[in-house]
Amino acid sequence: MEQDTKKKRSQVDDIDRSMYDFIKDESGQEHLEAGLTPEIVREISEKKDEPEWMLEKRLKALDIYNGFPIPDWGPSIAGLDMDNIVTYVKPETDQQASWEDVPEDIKDTFDRLGIPEAERSYLAGVGAQYDSELVYHSMQDSAAQMGIVYSGIEEALHDEKWEGIIHDHFMTLIPPTDHKFAALHGAVWSGGSFVYVPKGVKLDYPLQSYFRLNARGAGQFEHTLIIVEDDADLHFIEGCSAPKYNVANLHAGAVELFIGKNAHLRYSTIENWSKNMYNLNTKRAICDEGGDIEWISGSFGSHVGYLYPMSVLNGRKARSSFNGITFAGAGQNLDTGCKVVLNAPQTSASVETKSISKDGGVSTFRSSVVATPKAKDSAATVSCASLMLDDRSRSDTIPAMDIRCKSVSVGHEATIGRIGDDKVFYLMSRGMSEEEARTMIVNGFADPVSKELPLEYAVEMNNLIKLEMEGAIG
Amino acid sequence: MGTKTLERVSAMPAPTWHSLKMNDATVEIDEALAPARDIAIETDAELGGADAFDAALDAAQADWDAEFGDAPVLANYEDEQANRLGGLALSEYQKGVDAAEASKSLRAMYEQGMGEEAARWLAEMAGERTSLNVAASKACSASVLVRGIDASVNTAALDVIVDDGATLELAITVDSPVPGYGITGTTLRIFAGKNAHVTVRRVQTLDDSWTDLDDMGLFLSNGATIEIFQTVLGAGHTYTGLAGDLRGKGSTANVTTHYLGHGEQELDFNYVLRHHGRKTTCNLYANGVLAGESSKVLRGTIDLIRGCKGAQGQETDNVLLVDEAVKNKTVPTILCNEDDVAGNHGATIGHIREEQLFYLASRGLSREDAEGMFVSATLEDAWLNAANEDAKQAIVRLGNTIVEDFEEAYL
């Protein structure tokens, strides 16, 4: 009996991810050759009929990519062989503005993920990307009448009105010189969204982009560019998933957010990539005077993750907050966290993260708070809590602080531990099973993040936690 | 004569972004400096050679083998296949920890805080290792004086072997009583036997023309306690590295660091405490003041290794920033591969709070007076807690060069 219990504790069946884990036929889709060469980069650019300056940016980024070493401080990416990654897979459709016009199997994918239903219920606009291209993009008329632009970034690039703005912003916040996978993104990016919120406009309902990577052994490199002008307000939601394959898939997207004076942007993400995914994504926001960026981030999927949304507080009284949760299970090594740069007087930042490790999973919280000499009278607080659900897992916390201004105040605290037996015992004495008790405690642990999400997404996150906790008694 | 460079000194086990420039330190050494080998040691402990530490570690290995040698390796050690999909894509440092555990060799896992290369260089400069041996159940004390000697490298390589149930109080003073330029340093290997108690108080009061290297490695047997008090008040460049293996059940390591940065001083601290034994405890507490254009890096790593059930690790760094041009970097790291543990770390970095300044202003103290008080208070506190007369004299000597009439006004 004891042996059975031990076995049960150490062997947890792979969870049922049927909601996310379904594969659609790739026949009819256009695949470029696997690998990364100048020819492939030129071909991507040519297919998109891009301006010359964009091709030059791509080729320059490829050079930078080839010169960068693989990061030596994070999870191993030895299993990612770029020679086998297909960087461009075009679905068998152009971008549509009506779900009725989207091919049946792709529409079925997004139906199963609940995207059209979400759009009808509470979203002001939706973009849906399938492999390398957007297949659907639509926004409510009321939002369009407010002057808000929400379109595919490639569509905007071909619009004279927006090409100049994209030229002035694209990969300026995340230059290809930032790191190897920013350079990769710069070379082969495809798809993604462009959002422009005019001065003083406040959108009451969120916009959402959903990224689905269906093709086996492929990469997804979407670029999201959002400009929120002075005094404007936006909530943007990003979701992503993929079916599981036995070969590596790669996601190396980029998100650049420009937040004007006294503007506010909430950027929420629930990342649920399959567990063969290398998620090497880069997200960055820059805030002008009084600007406010709020990151809400849930990381559940991926085999390997490197994800550190960065806030650059560049104007007086700019603010940032980061609420994140990472759940690392069997076979996962998720290196997540955030970066903050206090670069103006009276700026403030708060970071609150939770990480959970189980079934031999590895979770690392990595952060940096940098205060430059300009950051007079600024403040930052960092709080991270890690929960270990068994003794086979790993949870590391590596928070760095670099303070170069005497009137900056930085507070940091972190704790690592397990679920207290007394808490489980109390809940069990109230009639719960051990599994229910632990799931409830983990849900409570995740509450600071889930309560910041729209209700439907909080429910989805709680369901993901429930899925992850199934059988995880130990 | 050129410059010798020691690379990757005091490297943190789990590195972070290289762009932050805080993963490790680089030490430049003027090769024109000659070894001085002028160390004064006073002790009632037995003096010996280099073999005693190795013998103690071998004996500990035999004890450990008898108790745990047949136990399966608890770490997640996996071969190269592990990097394929389906396995765990461990980072280099995660693989390194697992490989060390798999070796089951206490020697392989024993570390010096500044790293192998720096420790070897310090020992080479010292000439020969001296060991302080305290027999079981005995109580001894020792004082070591390392003086800066012009145009020289003056370092001590000391082994401390404190047998079961014994105690040792060791005071180390590093000072530059006469003007000059050069390097001082100590490299210590400390073995604490079962229920042994070792206290080390190291005070460094060098003038700015000197560089000091303070390197330590600790090994703790069952129930052993090692307490380290480091007071860093001077030197243009200071490198402090300490690594400890809390191997024995119920062992405790407490490391308390007080520092004062002023002028253009650069201070570098690296602490690595690895919990192997059950119910082990460590406390890393650093408290300091940075004034002038001084800069500091502090890396603190608590590693809770699988199997150290009931272990508790805590680290804190409180830094007071006095002047605009100071730079402070802190990275308090916790690595954890065991669930039945408690790990905490905290850092507070900032200036004197406005309400505190207001209170002091209401008592007639200007902002500058208040800021100056933190510098003099750090020196005064170091003097009050100095282990012996050598250390007190050294603090007074340095204090008088930093604070006007320090001795008359504050002591």
Structural class of chain A: alpha/beta
Major sheet size, sense and barrel closure of chain A: 13 strands, mixed
Q: Span between N and C termini of chain B?
A: 45 Å
The tally of domains of chain B stands at: 1
Tell me the major beta sheet of chain B. Answer: 10 strands, mixed
In helices, the fraction of residues of chain B equals 10-25%
What form of chain A results from the Cα inertia axes?
globular
Spatial gap, N to C terminus of chain A: 15 Å
Most extensive chain interface and residues per partner:
A-B, 56 and 57 residues
Q: Element order, helices and strands of chain B?
A: EEEEEHHHHEEEEEEEEEEEEEEEEHHHH
Quaternary state, please?
Answer: heterodimer
Count of helical segments of chain A? Answer: 12
Task: Pick out the low-confidence regions of chain B.
Answer: 79-83
Q: Given the C-alpha coordinates, what overall shape of chain B results?
A: globular
Helix fraction of chain A?
25-40%
Count of extended strands of chain A:
25
The total strand number of chain B stands at: 21
Overall pLDDT confidence of chain A = 86
Uncertain regions spanning at least 5 consecutive residues of chain A: 1-15
Present the secondary structure layout:
The complex is a heterodimer of chains A (474) and B (411).
Chain A: H1 2-10, E1 30-31, H2 38-47, H3 52-67, E2 89-90, H4 104-112, H5 115-122, E3 125-130, E4 133-139, H6 141-145, E5 149-152, H7 153-157, H8 160-169, H9 180-188, E6 193-197, E7 207-212, E8 219-220, E9 223-228, E10 233-241, E11 249-251, E12 254-259, E13 264-272, E14 277-280, E15 282-287, E16 292-299, E17 304-307, E18 310-313, E19 319-328, E20 333-342, E21 348-357, E22 362-371, E23 379-388, E24 394-403, E25 409-418, H10 421-429, H11 434-450, H12 455-469
Chain B: E1 3-9, E2 25-30, E3 34-35, E4 39-43, E5 46-48, H1 51-68, H2 92-103, H3 106-109, H4 116-126, E6 130-134, E7 139-147, E8 152-162, E9 167-175, E10 182-192, E11 197-205, E12 210-220, E13 225-232, E14 237-246, E15 252-261, E16 266-275, E17 281-290, E18 295-304, E19 312-321, E20 327-336, E21 342-350, H5 354-362, H6 367-384, H7 389-402, H8 406-410
Parallel strand pairs in B: 3-8, 6-8, 7-9, 8-10, 9-11, 10-12, 11-13, 12-14, 13-15, 14-16, 15-17, 16-18, 17-19, 18-20, 19-21
Antiparallel strand pairs in B: 1-2, 4-7, 5-6
Helix pairs in contact in B: 6-7
